[in-house]
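Practice problem: DNA-3-methyladenine glycosylase I
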Amino acid sequence: MSHYCDLAPGHPFHGPYHDHEYGFPVADDTALFERLVLEINQAGLSWLTVLKKREAFQRALDGFAIERIAAYGDAERERLLADAGIIRNRLKVEATIHNARVIQRLRDEHGSFRAWLDHHHPLPHADWVKLFKRTFRFTGPEIVKEFLMSTGYLPGAHHDDCPVQARILAAGPAWVRRP
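Answer key — structure tokens:
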């Protein structure tokens, strides 16, 4: 089985994501939301497809502005479903809008999306999946795993001998910190 560290280095799309984002702790709620939306949209497709469409998603979703997306109505839904630059899947579009509203609620209750994640860390993967399924839409086991690995809440994003792993460890991801 190949690992992202074997595939990504030097690749025009995978390389920058692997080297500078994947596995690093993410503090900003907008960036966390973006990562969740991208992972949801990857379901059934390749990660390369999502990375190639990332800029189009940023444009179509107002820079992943949680407040703006949470306010989307029928016109915005239809606009997104007609946008050939993004993945036009009704369930994924609905999940994006719904999940933005959920994050607004989590911010009210915990101060931020990150604080909500930190509040529940550490959990075993299966418990994270149950929590995400109760809280968000379109979050199955693989989506939850990739979201949490990509944002530093679960280990496994990089091989131990990958040069990026040392930088991630230095950044202090949640899976290294003890509660």
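Discussion: The longest helix spans residues 90-110. Students who identified this feature from the tokens alone can consider the problem solved.
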